[in-house]
Amino acid sequence: MAILTLHPGKEKSLLRRHPWIFSGAVAQFEGRARPGDTVDVVSTEGRPLARAAWSPASQIRARVWSFDAEENIDHAFFKRRVAAAVVRRAVLPELAGQQGLRLIHAESDGLPGIIADRYGDTVVLQLSTVGAEKWRGAIADSLLKATGCARIYERSDLDLRGLEGLEPVTGWIHGAASDDALVIEENGVQMEVDIVGGHKTGFYLDQRDNRRRVAEIARDRRVLNCFCYTGGFSLQALAGGAREVVSLDSSGPALATARRNLALNPQLDATRAIWLEADVFGELRSLRAAGERYELIILDPPKFAHTAAQAERAARAYKDINLLGLQLLAPGGLLMSYSCSGGIGAELFRKIVAGAALDAGRNARIVQQLHGAADHPVDLAFPEGEYLKGLLLQVD
Ligand code: SAH
């Protein structure tokens, strides 16, 4: 096995169990390794630290599979790690029995580069690194065994793969498509999941708890759901008894799915739903100019910052929509606002929203801090895993 030796002091983050080794930390590389091969990581003094997947094309030059420097990285390793991730969720009452569930959350489950989401009897697998790519067969086999699912579809089509020198890969690894649309129940509402063409693996499972929260607070309110995608928050607002729900998204296909989702739920009053295909930045300005007011506004935008370097521009975009959202709130109204940008930390996000409230001339207080659901855990040693943060605010 090849040996990766670190520069002096660069072992510190590994000793704190952070799983990334950046190119600048690598002093020496001895032996032969192909991209994705497992390498031994040692300190300058030669102290064994970890076994990691070698990613020569990426700035993150290696990602740790195991901090036990003697653990074999083989089929049995993935079987153990995958089974542990599945059990970790099965023992949490709010997750047990969920039809839509994230089974593997990459680094936070000790499996860098690997995402697996379950929708009913189908698992959607997303591999983003050469290390993960090398073990596709073992990972898929372990998922089938640990879940008893019949089908695995691969959605390895993230831009991120380019940084690893990988092409997109999509298609069935096990089983085949069925003619029926894939539908899951979430918080009592039926939702169609487009695993082939939808965002991420088809659905934003991380917002499950926050969507339920919307059902709790929407009663009798006039609701504006911005960046509604397939209507997750909108349908929960209707389920919670909202008076009217206006939903905005720039994607026609997402809105078409949202309308189908509403039709899948005849218990909801469809006459209270309005769907608008529009750019949120422009539409919020139009609504403000028209003097519209809402009693609950949800802002769940896409990732504005993909890297820390883009944080500044992203901060301006977050401030802009939050400012507009706050201006559109009726007295006593609620704003539920999110950022899913890794480069924008919870503290910074709060400052951005505070700045928006100041400029909007609205007093706002935090009713609740919001996070991803428990199937998107954050390993204490890997704060980067905490990408989703939100605030529920009440204005005067
Ligand atoms: N809240 C959703 C997920 C939102 S994903 C849920 O719970 O499922 C972000 C959405 O924002 C996508 O559907 C995308 O089409 C939309 N979007 C991105 N930029 C936009 C813009 N400028 N205006 C309107 N919608 C936009």
CATH superfamily membership of the largest domain: Vaccinia Virus protein VP39
Bound ligands, each once: S-adenosyl-L-homocysteine
* Unreliable stretches: none
Question: Strand order of the main beta sheet, please?
Answer: 16-15-14-17-18-20-19
Contiguous helical run count: 10
CATH first level of the largest domain: which class? Alpha Beta
Whole-number tally of structural domains: 3
> Major sheet: size, sense and barrel closure?
7 strands, mixed
The CATH architecture classification of the largest domain is 3-Layer(aba) Sandwich
CATH fold type of the largest domain: Rossmann fold
Q: Percentage of helical residues? A: 25-40%
The arrangement of helices and strands along the chain is EHEEEEEHEEEHHEEEEHEHEHEHEHEHEE
Q: How many β-strand runs? A: 20
Gross morphology is globular
Explain what the structure shows.
The protein is of the alpha/beta class and 396 residues long. The chain folds into three domains: 3-66, Roll (Archaeosine Trna-guanine Transglycosylase, Chain: A, domain 4); 75-174, RNA methyltransferase domain (HRMD) like (Transcription Regulator spoIIAA), CATH 3.30.750; 183-395, 3-Layer(aba) Sandwich (Rossmann fold), CATH 3.40.50. The protein contains ten helices and 20 strands. It has helices spanning 12-15, 75-90, 130-134, 136-147, 208-217, 232-239, 252-263, 280-289, 311-327, 346-360, and strands spanning 3-6, 20-22, 26-30, 38-42, 48-54, 60-66, 100-105, 114-119, 122-127, 151-156, 169-174, 182-186, 189-193, 222-226, 244-249, 273-277, 294-299, 329-339, 364-371, 389-395. The strands form four sheets. A seven-stranded mixed β-sheet has the order 16-15-14-17-18-20-19, with helices on both faces. The structure holds S-adenosyl-L-homocysteine (SAH).
